[in-house]
Structures are given as C-alpha cells and as structure tokens.
C-alpha cells in the first residue's frame, strides 16, 4: 500500500490553455495516507474521473506530480503503478468460474498455486461467496457479479491503491446498502488504501473516513463526514451534502451584525473582515419554530417518516426546516428561529465566521 500525494496538479484537455477556465482540474494539492478509506464526491463534470484517470496513469497531467510514497510515478504507465480498479460495470469473465475469476489476477503474475488458493479462499470468505466458487460467473446476479469484480481488485495484497469508480451504479437500490456495508467491512479487514469515486453522498459518507468534495475542477473541502455536515467550508458543500441541503440565504453586514430580510441574525462567532457577497448558512436541522424570530409563512409540509420537512417563506426567500412532532399546516404564519452556534456567515462562498468556542 502507499501514501498518495498529488502536488500542484493541473490538467487541461486543451493543447494551449490560456485561462483558468480552460483547466478541467484547476490546482490540486492533496495527500491520502497509507491504508485510509477516501471518497471523491461531486456532481458530474466536476473533475472526479479526470483525477482518477491521472492517478491510475490513463491520463498524463498538464502540470504537477503524482507520488506513491516517495516515488514519482507521474510518467509511469498504468501497468507500472501497481493499482487495482473496480469500475461501474462488473469486469469479470463470464465463462470462468467464480474461483477462476478471483484467481486470475494472481495467476497472471505467476503467484504460486498454494498462495493463490489461500488468497482466493480468504477473499471469498470476506465477500460471502464461498458457496459460489464453483459456479460460472455468467449465471450470477448483478450484485454478486460486482462482488466478484470487487474481489478481483482486492485479491492482490501488493497493490498501492484500490480505486472504485462508481461501483454501485448498476446495483438495485435495495441491494446497495449491503454492498456498501460489505465494502466498509472489507476495508477494515484488509486496511488497503482505497479511493471511492461517486456523485452519491450516501455512498461517500458511509464508506469513507475522509471525503474530498469537488466542484468545477477544485477541491472545496476535505474532511470527515461529520466535518462536512457540521461545518461546511463552502456553500457548495453545505448545499450538496444533506437532505435537504443547507439553507443559503442572502444577507447584509452592517453595524457589526448580519441582517436577513431586515432582521438581525445571531452568528456562531465574529465575521472576518473583507469585501464580497455575503450569505448566511444554516442547516434545516437547526431551524425551529419559536415564539420569537423571523416572520414566515408555511408553504409546504412533507412527512418523510421520522420527521417533517417544512418549507416556509421569509419575505420572498424560501427557508427549509426539519421538524419533529406536530407541525403547522400549509398557509400558517409562524416565527422561525436559527440556532446561533450553527448559523454561519459565508463570503463569496467561503466560510467567514470563527467557530463557536
């Protein structure tokens, strides 16, 4: 396994990039520690696949370096980077048995038969497919085919990193949670460096110890799932993560305070100095109905089981709240309160308040 370092990495698909917008990857400086479980999370077109292809050697970056431990692999082809990759669609041989599929990466490298058998048996046990070892892969269900594809990526114990490129795309929703749990369990057992690429926040947050959130070719935040939820460093992170996402509300700064729709709103801490467009960020979980607060009108109530998602309008701005128990009906006039220690100021998208002590 290896520590992976991306240093001053930039990439453009244009032969002669002239502006920052010409780069699919703007500038990436990042270190993934040996043995960690990481996720690359972001919408389609944000640069996730470009970054993955650069790490794997399928694409040479326009600028910068890729290091595996202290070895510069920037110019090395994929077969010399010692990487295993699991793709969106299962990559297995339908005419082979499950056993032979799992054994193939080892046999192809001349590993002794006894070690092949021991390793295949171990991985099959981890994946809970021991009873399928003698079956031809063609007859397996899609989720079991993807299990075998994962096993082919994990069966070698000498790889620098195992990369998963949206591996649950073709899996039925009711089976996804099983494979997510299994993958997390596998990481805890084998402790390989793993990078999981996805646009699905649930997959990223349940698998990874550290999540890298990307937007428009940039890393906007890297942190634990708790970090990303509780203290988004950028409004994109707050909006992208959470269901529903963070309320991002326009505000004015004056007289030392933040004002939303003419009313002063208490913030988590003092705001940094600077110019730029300012917004308040508050997650729906920390919006409540109170005796005092912002005048609002309920426009929608959605019962999602354990709680209700309520939409209200403050002036001409929509605010979402997550409420438990009895909730006002549509059309009701209420007052909304924001929990101060969870109310953050953002300037030009970036957090601009100090954390509450």
Automatic annotation (TrEMBL):
SMART domains given in the database record: AAA
Residue ranges annotated as transmembrane are none
Output the Gene3D superfamilies linked to this UniProt entry: 2.40.50.100, Nucleic acid-binding proteins, P-loop containing nucleotide triphosphate hydrolases
Q: GO CC terms on record?
A: ATP-binding cassette (ABC) transporter complex, substrate-binding subunit-containing
| Record-linked Pfam families | ABC_tran (PF00005), OB_MalK (PF17912)
Molecular function terms in GO for this entry?
Answer: ABC-type ferric iron transporter activity; ATP binding; ATP hydrolysis activity
Could you tell me which residue ranges the ABC transporter domain spans?
Answer: 4-241
List UniProt keywords, sorted A-Z.
Answer: ATP-binding, Cell membrane, Membrane, Nucleotide-binding, Transport
Q: Which family does it belong to?
A: Belongs to the ABC transporter superfamily.
Protein known as? ABC transporter ATP-binding protein
């Amino acid at each position: 396994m290896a520590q992976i370092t991306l240093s001053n990495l930039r990439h453009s698909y244009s032969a002669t990039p002239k502006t920052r917008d010409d780069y699919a990857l703007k500038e990436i400086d990042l270190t993934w520690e040996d043995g960690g479980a990481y996720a690359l999370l972001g919408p389609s077109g944000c640069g996730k696949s470009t970054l993955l292809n650069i790490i794997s050697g399928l694409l040479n970056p326009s600028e910068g370096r890729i290091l595996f431990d202290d070895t510069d692999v920037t110019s090395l082809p994929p077969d010399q980077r010692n990487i295993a990759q699991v793709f969106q669609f299962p990559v297995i041989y339908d005419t082979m048995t499950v056993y032979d599929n799992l054994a193939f990466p080892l046999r192809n490298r001349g590993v002794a038969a006894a070690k092949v058998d021991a390793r295949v048996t171990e991985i099959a046990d981890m994946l809970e497919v021991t009873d399928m070892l003698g079956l031809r892969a063609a007859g397996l269900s899609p989720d079991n085919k993807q299990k075998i594809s994962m096993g082919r990526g994990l069966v070698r114990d000498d790889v620098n990193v195992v990369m998963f490129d949206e591996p649950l795309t073709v899996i039925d929703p009711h089976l996804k949670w099983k494979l997510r749990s299994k993958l997390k369990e596998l990481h805890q057992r084998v402790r390989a460096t793993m990078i999981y690429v996805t646009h699905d926040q649930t997959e990223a947050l349940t698998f990874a110890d550290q999540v890298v959130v990307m937007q428009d070719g940039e890393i906007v935040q890297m942190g634990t799932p708790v970090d990303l939820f509780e203290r988004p460093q950028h409004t994109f992170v707050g909006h992208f993560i959470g269901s529903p996402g963070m309320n991002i509300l326009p505000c004015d700064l004056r007289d030392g305070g933040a004002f939303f729709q003419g009313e002063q709103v208490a913030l988590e801490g003092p705001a940094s100095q600077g110019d730029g467009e300012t917004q308040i960020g508050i997650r729906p979980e920390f919006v409540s109905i109170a005796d005092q607060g912002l005048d609002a009108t309920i426009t929608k109530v959605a019962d999602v089981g354990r709680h209700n998602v309520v939409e209200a309008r403050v002036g001409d701005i929509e605010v979402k709240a997550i409420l438990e128990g009895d909730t006002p009906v549509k059309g009701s006039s209420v007052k909304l309160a924001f929990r101060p220690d969870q109310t953050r100021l953002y300037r030009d998208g970036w957090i601009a308040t100090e954390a509450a002590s």
